[in-house]
């Protein structure tokens, strides 16, 4: 029976382990190309090895994110111990009743003095928001009425991952803070619009009346001005003014 092991080359991250000689399994936390050497040793101690390369691509985008706050293990243990991540993934699959490959660990860190692990569900589409699927997954972890983590979920995750809190965060096209709505015009708004239109018509009519009055007034002033200027012009030429009485004499 051969014993398999993986040796990292070029300071690559060791995230694969051989569990019970069932093959190499692991969860990478970094993207890029990594070089390793696979070693196989038999009972006699004879060794055979072969190099291989793994290309880790970025995970698919998501429109949701679940954050688990746990007492243990520590963030350092989760980040450096591949077996801890494998056990966590199995616990999630068991608790949420989905295959192991359905989930992606997005981040490992700390929050509120607890170990924080963020993950997403690969089976939920990201190009459109499947609210029913997101709500269904959240309902297995969170009590909607009291916004508390369900006791059943905590027990199923086990004592080695004592979950204190589970939080569902929606983003992208599932972001609940973005609300786009249109409303039909109401009767009140239509009446207000009619009143405004009537007021505008009245103002225009008053302006028209004032303009006509100004035109008439200017015309009268101009006419009177012409009469006065004609009389003055006649006298200024020095011609005698003949009155009817003088003509008869």
Rg for CA atoms: 45 Å
Q: What do the pLDDT scores average to?
A: 81
Largest sheet: 4 strands, antiparallel
What's the count of strands? Answer: 11
**Biggest β-sheet: strands ordered side by side in the sheet:** 7-8-6-11
Low-confidence stretches: 178-190, 228-243
Intertermini distance: 162 Å
CATH topology descriptor of the domain at 64-174: Alpha-Beta Plaits
Shape: elongated
Which class of the domain at 64-174 in CATH terms? Answer: Alpha Beta
If helices are DSSP runs of H or I spanning 4 or more residues, what is the number of helices? 6
Q: What order do the helices and strands come in, and which of them pair?
A:
Layout: E1 3-9, E2 16-18, E3 24-26, E4 32-41, E5 47-56, E6 64-70, H1 75-80, H2 82-96, E7 103-111, E8 114-121, H3 131-139, E9 142-143, E10 148-149, H4 151-157, E11 163-170, H5 187-236, H6 244-248
Antiparallel strand pairs: 1-4, 2-3, 4-5, 6-8, 6-11, 7-8, 9-10
């Amino acid at each position: 029976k051969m014993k398999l092991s993986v040796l990292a080359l070029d300071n690559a991250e060791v995230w694969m382990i051989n569990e019970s000689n069932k093959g190499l399994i692991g969860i990478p936390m970094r993207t890029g190309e990594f070089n390793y050497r696979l070693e196989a040793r038999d009972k006699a101690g004879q060794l055979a090895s072969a190099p291989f390369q793994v290309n880790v691509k970025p995970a698919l985008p998501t429109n949701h994110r679940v954050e688990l706050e746990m007492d243990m293990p520590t963030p350092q243990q989760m980040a450096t111990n591949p077996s801890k991540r494998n056990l966590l993934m199995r616990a999630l699959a068991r608790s949420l009743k989905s295959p192991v490959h359905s989930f992606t660990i997005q981040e490992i860190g700390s929050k509120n003095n607890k170990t924080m692990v963020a993950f997403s569900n690969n089976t939920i589409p990201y190009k459109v928001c499947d609210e029913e699927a997101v709500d269904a997954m959240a309902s297995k972890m969170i009590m909607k009425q009291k916004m508390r983590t369900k006791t059943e979920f905590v027990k199923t995750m086990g004592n080695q991952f004592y979950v204190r809190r589970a939080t569902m965060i929606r983003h992208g096209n599932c972001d609940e803070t973005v609300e786009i709505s249109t409303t039909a015009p109401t009767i009140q708004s239509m009446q207000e619009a009619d009143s405004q239109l009537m007021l505008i018509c009245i103002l225009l009519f008053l302006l028209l009346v004032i303009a006509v009055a100004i035109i008439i007034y200017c015309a009268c002033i101009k006419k009177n001005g012409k009469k006065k200027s004609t009389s003055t012009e006649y006298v200024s030429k020095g011609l005698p003014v003949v009155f009817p009485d003088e003509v008869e004499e």
